[in-house]
Amino acid sequence: GNSVTQMEGPVTLSEEAFLTINCTYTATGYPSLFWYVQYPGEGLQLLLKATKADDKGSNKGFEATYRKETTSFHLEKGSVQVSDSAVYFCALRVGGGGADGLTFGKGTHLIIQP
Amino acid sequence: DGGITQSPKYLFRKEGQNVTLSCEQNLNHDAMYWYRQDPGQGLRLIYYSQIVNDFQKGDIAEGYSVSREKKESFPLTVTSAQKNPTAFYLCASTRGTEQYFGPGTRLTVT
Question: Could B45 and A101 be called an inter-chain contact, meaning their C-beta atoms sit closer than 8 Å?
Answer without folding.
Answer: yes
